[in-house]
Each structure stands twice: as C-alpha cells, then as structure tokens.
Design goal:
CATH superfamily of the largest domain: Response regulator
CATH class of the largest domain: Alpha Beta
CATH architecture of the largest domain: 3-Layer(aba) Sandwich
Distance between the termini: 37 Å
Order of helices and strands: HHHHEHEHEHEEHEHEHEHEHEHEE
Strand order of the largest sheet: 2-1-3-4-5-11
Largest sheet: 6 strands, parallel
Length: 347
Amino acid sequence: MKPTLQRVAEQAGVSRGTVDRALHGRGRVDAEVAARVLRVAQEMGYPVERLARRGAEKPATPARRRIRIGVITYLCRAGFMREINRGIARAREELREWDVEILLRESVALNEREQLRFIDELTGAGVDGLAIMPIDTGAVRQRLYDLEKATGLPLVMFNSDLPGIPRLCYVGMDNRQSGRTAAGLMNLLTRGRGKVLVITGTFSSQLNNARVDGFAQEVKASFPGLSIAAVQSSMDNEDEVRRIVENAMLNIAGVNGIFTVSSGQSGLRDAFANLRLEKRPSVIIYDQTPRNEQLLRDGVVDFLIDQNGFEQGYRPLHILANAINGSTVPEAYSEFTEISIKTRYNL
C-alpha cells in the first residue's frame, strides 16, 4: 500500500497536520516529535529525501507567536453542554499544535456579574480573541460593544447571539427558525387544534426568546386552530418543569401540546406520572442528551430538536485562530448549525 501522510500520522501517533509540518518545514514541531515522524516516514518508504532537499533550499519558517483565545460559557453542567464542551476540547487539542492556548471560563448558572468578570479577566490577561456564549443583558451588551469599539478584539458568539453587537461571526442554530420548525411539528402532532404550553428557561436568554418567538409567530401565521396557553419560565430546573406542567394540566382546559425550549425536560416524566393522564399531551423538546434520548425511547416526548453542539464548541476557536493569524476570516456573518429532528426511530 502506498505510504501517505495520513498513514504516517497514524503510525507515529500524531495528527496529519503535525506530519505535514514536520516533513515540509511549515511550522514549529517539537524536535523529538519531528524525529519520530521522520523515522516512521522513512521506515514506511515515504519520499522524505526529496522533502529534505526541498527544505534545505529555502529558509526556515519563522516561528509564529503564541496566540491566546478566551472562551466563556454558562450552564456548564447542563446536558446540552456535553457536546459543546466536547467540541471545545477537540479544537483545543488541535490548535495546541499551532501554539494556540485556550483560556476557558465556565459559569454554572446564567450569572451576569460572573460573565462580566470573566470578560474583564480574559481581556486583562491579553487574549487575542474571544469566543463567548453571551447572556442577553444590557450590561453584557454594553461591555462587549465597548470592548470591540475600543480594542477591535476579534469576537465570535456561539450557541446564543446578541444581534447588533459587532462580531466576526455567530456559530449556532438559527433559533428563530427552529421555533418555526417546532410549530410545524406541533401542528402535525395535534392535527392543528388545541392549546400549547410553552416552557422556557429564563426570559433573559436571547436563545430561548428566539425559539419562543419563532414558534409563536409561525403558529399565529399558519395554524389558526392552535393557540398558546401560556409561556412560563422554569429556570432550567426539572422540578420547576414538573410543577409548571402539573399546574397547567390541572388548571387550563384543552392543553394538548407542550413545547420546552431549554433544560429541565426530565421533569416531564414525573409530571405525567403524577397526573396519571389517560392521554398525555404531544411534546417537543431540545437537545440530544442521554437523558433526553431516554425520554424519546420511553415515549415521554414525541420530537427532539438537536442543535449540533459539537460544531458550536469546535468552529469558533478555529475561526478565531485563522482570523488572528490573518489567513482567513468568516465569509458569513452567521454560520448556522443544522436543525436536526430526532424521534425514537432515528436516534
């Protein structure tokens, strides 16, 4: 079998990019790693002599300066963050070979004061770019606006967006469109008639608000037989989701649909068990987490809308690294991830 860069990389236990840089002199590679790559390439019959001669004929590639990228997230323990964190970890591992350092700051809750402190802390540390899941408050908006205007710091928002704030790019789901998608699904489930209980996380989340707005707009525009019974905040807490569902089902006549746009979906199971309904409402939730997959398998919910969290964690760091290096900048103002619809049959 003909030796390739990929086969050399697998044999040497490094990435294809490391092999490329070690053999072609295109960047900094640890001397020990470079020696191992060269030895493996020679053993496999890769034409390294030609590469060595080519490298000797040109000056050494100047070392790139170390780049530091700050990353700020919230709800770091929530189920949907599992894939986002996996994307961040993968990007961090890949970019380490390019001398890019990732400084991660995580909040357990939607905490405005803590997010402002993280912004100041990372900019004070001299980061070259910032990837952030922003909280939609006036103070956060103003801080990011002032920061960009004063310093021109490259900024990428992911998962949630703040329209109107200067940035390189937003990476995440088109949340308003996903709300419209959910409205179409709910119309199918209910055959276009009834009342829908909408449960959001917090009213300060631009992401949550966009999903609810998209859902409400599409229901009003396209499905006159459907109406929204109430929109209530669960603070992303499953006990609060249980309480909201139980109260709504007992006190609002005709509720036959539930649309939950944030975390805490496991509270649906307990609510239905306590209510002992002859027929449960049709239910649509977000995020393909292990617990939500089980809700689908057990018939507690009907549809799950997934937002491809891995890409939301992965793409922003590469976008920033490329922009800071001056190689490429994003062509699109927003890079939307796929709106993926899951049922128990296609998990």
